[in-house]
Amino acid sequence: MSIAGIRSNRGDIYQTMIAFDWALYVLSDPEYQWLEIDSTAYLVDDVVIGKSDGSLICCQCKKNQPDCKAWSISDLGDELEKASVVLADNQQAKVKFYSRDSFGALAKLREYSTLWRNDEEYLGNLTQEHIMTNRDLDARITVKAPYLTTYDFLCRTSFETSQNFDHIETELRERLRYLTSNSVAAFNALWVQIDKLGGHIEGGNQLASTQHRLTKEDIKDILHQAGAMLVPMISVTVVCNSFASTSNIGRLWRRDIAGHRISSPLVEELLAAIDTKKRAVLLSGLPGSGKTCVMLSLQEVLEQRRKNKVTLCHFSFNRVNLLTLRRRRNVKHKAYQRNG
Fold first, then answer.
1. How far is CA 195 from the centre of its chain?
2. Domains and CATH numbers, the chain
3. Who has the most CB within 10 Å: 49, 72, 120, 184?
């Protein structure tokens, strides 16, 4: 394969990664509703995201510069003109430029624009360097959008520099792991579907519509068909409270004979399985064989372990504090003796 072919493929993979990132927002955030790839409805078309309030985010994903140099206004000329048209035609639209290379002076100007409240303040405080960049940007965007100011353009446009491919993929997998079960299958299925969406190829399940758009429900269906489900994050406190409140009625059951309990070896076996980090344990038995009593005993042991751990930490902390206090007192006492 030629170098040009490799670069083209890497550009396609980069675009898919950016689309995947936004697909996770569509999946998890009520504010985001759908995404399109290589859209035919918008000039800035690599990735387009629709929000619940009707606003749009249009993304332009740029391949690496041949020499990995910073992007200049002349390099981005056509894309900047397209972005200016999108912003001028739709007041609810925003544009994001993505690349693994820096956006140089243009990104610096955009950052500088965030310091000022309006166009007048912005223009009145431009540095000599920013005056030149602003002039070049104005000359480019007014070709297609003569009434769009550079300040308005910069307020509604951002320039994102990405990490390397491995880092991006690791972050995507980690985010998906917090959102779904069976995250490996979920990642593979979602990647394939997004890649097909970019090629305007409908999957066998016909999830991609004729507009080549994936909605929130489409993404959920993809995950469901891959054997994954949404599993929202739960805090450790909530899990502990839920665990402690489990089988409260069963805790009142009579589990002793004349004040004595008959220990079950199953409890020790289950504890050993937990300690060795077994991924799954199945406790089975006939009705009335004592499964619930075994689980209640197991729960009590685990709760006692947790209490002992907290008590031990508290004891160790207090012991350290006591030793520190004694040392300080000894130092003060010796100092007092010397001064005396």
1. 20
2. 3-225 (3.40.1350), 236-338 (no CATH)
3. 49
